[in-house]
Design goal:
Oligomer: single chain
Structural class: alpha+beta
Shape: globular
Radius of gyration: 30 Å
Low-confidence stretches: 7-12, 80-84, 218-223, 243-247
Largest sheet: 10 strands, mixed
Length: 636
């Protein structure tokens, strides 16, 4: 809970004097609010991790220097009255706003950088990235709109919303903070819708944080013989970087393992294949083979050579990941170049060898910390070849979209009535970042990428932690259609159970509807089935969903079962349910080809739904019968 800005009922008068003790007391009491204020005013271009650390640093440096007599500070009035804030709080707030505005100034060669423009010395976090909890689509939209404002306009908006200052008070604070034209800042802030309640969201709380590792490489240090090792590294680096057979140009790759023509051809960036820009328009199919090479670094032969070398021989420091069932070996021959460019703080290369998508990423500065990711995509076409994850950072995701995608938007599956948030894409088809599905904690939102292609067809995919997003469909397994947000409103959170499982597509099938006993309310039975790229490992989940429940209750699940799939489009599941009156019932439902249901107690009904009274602790078994007499067991 945010502390409220302190107030006092003193009448206007001379500017009060603030001493160190007053400022320190205000800082300690209202530290979370001041840090939130700094975080909101800081430019989002810093990245969420640096914004968090800089916000804390600016707040901790806001006290008066030394123990000299206090300094005078003007205190603006709040909206709606003449109450004046505590002088100590007003002083430290002014210092925080001034530092946040300084941090947003561009660095130039003409003047020394100000302290706030440099990375903070304290606090320091090593080996972790910190960022606030992800909010919903409304918070993301507000953050994107604030990012487009100037620093002074952002400060004006936040002082209005978070601090409840009127325009005169905002003008006073901005003037004292060094803003040249507060009126222009106020006018620019007026262009953003006044949704001030969102400023108190966890999305903008830098005191309640998630932590993720910066990398997963081994972090051992060898202290013995450090001087000898450093000297040997310098000598070897100089020798191996010379022209010839050394591995200097190959970055983080291990030493060569073979010298044969096929292996050498696969490592030659000059032999990479490239599709023509309009090849997809003339091709009989739309798959990755007709993607043109895009990005600002497609002609950077040194980068491409490093990517190919690391693919063939990843060194010990390279972080390698592969979806289940995906081989991570060297390329069998010259691969196809899909993308090479700078994305956020990394240089990224995407390659395709007919079976796999390979992503190579390295920091903009140097090649230490390189990453290599593999994803199987054999047989992908149309919707399954419409997007690739090009980068993830701070819980956000960016996609590279196919050349036939005409527009992209974000849909929160848990809010089917909400509006789609349009995504900007650059000239290469890379989307702006947006919040991916939360990987831990409560499931309060689940964003999906909605794409419209050149024919007008709309597809939806979602990020499940891999290079290729999973396609979302709905309807009977033998003839699924493209999903709409309403098809996944109560089932979206169950997608977390198949994260990083090599998922190709997930289908949601509402196979039965049932009237609940006593209440007469409607409920439905839904089966979600995740198909994988490798074929094996499919997962089916039967859910019981009531109209008043936010999510479905898992009734049964199975792995590597043909049930609920195109080969066997039938399913049966049951669940014990407690009525509002306190009575327990065994509820069950099968797909429409189930003609009768039998409970273990002997109760039998004709049709594909069942509701019989039972005891809370009673064990019940449900069996279905098809029209030809075949028995069907529940999903397991």
């Amino acid at each position: 809970m945010q502390s409220q800005p302190p107030q006092s009922a003193s009448a206007p008068g001379p500017a009060p004097v603030v001493d160190v003790e007053q400022a320190e007391a205000a800082l300690v009491e209202h530290y979370p609010r001041l840090v939130r204020l700094a975080y909101l005013v800081l430019p989002p271009s810093l990245g969420r991790n640096r914004r968090v650390l800089t916000a804390h640093a600016l707040t901790q440096r806001s006290l008066p220097r030394g123990r000299k007599p206090g300094v005078a500070v003007a205190i603006p009035a709040q909206q709606g009255g003449g109450h004046r804030r505590d002088p100590g709080y007003a002083y430290v707030r002014l210092q925080v706003v001034r530092g946040a505005l300084d941090a947003g100034l561009p660095l130039t060669w003409r003047s020394w950088p100000r302290r706030a423009q440099l990375p903070p010395l304290l606090p320091q976090v090593r080996g972790l990235r910190l960022f606030p909890r992800s909010g919903g689509a409304d918070e993301l939209a507000l953050d994107q709109r604030l990012a487009k404002l100037s620093g002074a306009a952002r400060a004006a908006y936040v002082l209005r919303g978070l601090e409840a200052l009127d325009d005169a008070g905002v003008r006073m604070v901005l003037t004292a903070a060094g803003c040249d034209d507060p009126d222009d800042a106020l006018a620019e802030a007026d262009a953003v819708e006044a949704r001030y309640a969102l400023l108190a969201s966890p999305e903008f709380d830098p005191c309640s944080l998630h932590a993720r590792p910066t990398d997963l490489m081994r972090r051992r240090q060898h202290l013995k013989a450090a001087g000898v090792a450093a000297l040997a590294t310098l000598v070897c680096g100089a020798l191996l970087g010379l022209p010839g057979d050394g591995w200097g140009p190959d970055g983080a790759a291990a030493p060569p393992y073979a010298q044969n023509p096929a292996a050498q051809a696969a490592l030659d960036p000059g032999k990479l294949t490239v599709a023509a820009t309009g090849a997809w328009r003339r091709s009989a199919r739309t798959d990755f083979s007709v993607w043109p090479a895009r990005g600002g670094l497609v002609d950077d032969k040194a980068l491409l050579r490093r990517a190919l070398a690391v693919w063939a021989r990843p060194g010990e420091t390279v972080q390698v990941s592969a979806t289940p069932g995906t081989p991570s070996g060297a390329p069998p021959g010259p691969a196809q170049l899909l993308y090479a460019g700078e994305v956020d703080a990394a240089r990224v290369v995407l390659l395709y060898d007919g079976l796999r998508i390979v992503r190579y990423a390295e920091p903009k500065e140097g090649t230490s910390g390189a990453a290599l990711d593999f994803a199987r995509v054999d047989g992908a076409s149309g919707p399954e070849a419409s997007a690739l994850v090009v980068n993830r950072a701070d819980g956000n995701v960016r996609y590279l979209t196919a050349p036939w995608v005409r527009s992209a938007a974000v849909r929160d599956l848990l809010k089917p009535a909400g509006q789609a948030l349009a995504l900007r894409r650059d000239a290469d088809g890379v989307t702006e970042p947006f919040a991916g599905p939360a990987q831990s904690g409560r499931c309060t939102s689940w964003n999906a990428l909605r794409m419209r292609d050149h024919s007008g067809a709309v597809r939806m995919v979602t990020d499940l932690g891999e290079l290729t997003p999973a396609r979302l469909t709905a309807g009977r397994p033998e003839a699924p259609r493209e999903a709409a947000p309403a098809d996944w409103t109560k089932s979206a959170c169950s997608l977390a159970s198949v994260r990083s499982h090599g998922v190709r597509s997930v289908n949601s099938w509402a196979y039965a509807r049932q009237t609940l006993p006593e209440t007469g309310a409607a409920a439905q039975w839904v089966c979600t089935r995740a198909e994988t790229w490798r074929g094996a490992g499919s997962r089916s989940l039967a859910q019981f969903q009531t109209a008043d429940g936010p999510t479905g209750a898992v009734a049964a699940k199975a792995e590597d079962s043909p049930a609920c799939g195109p080969r066997e489009p039938r399913v049966l599941a049951g669940v014990r349910w407690k009525s509002p009156g306190g009575n327990w019932y065994l509820l069950g439902a099968g797909s429409k080809d189930v003609t009768s249901l039998t409970a273990s107690g002997g109760d039998q009904v004709q049709g594909n739904v069942l509701a019989v009274s039972t005891e809370r602790t009673a064990r019940a078994r449900l069996t279905g019968t098809l029209a030809d007499g075949t028995k069907v067991a529940t999903l397991r």
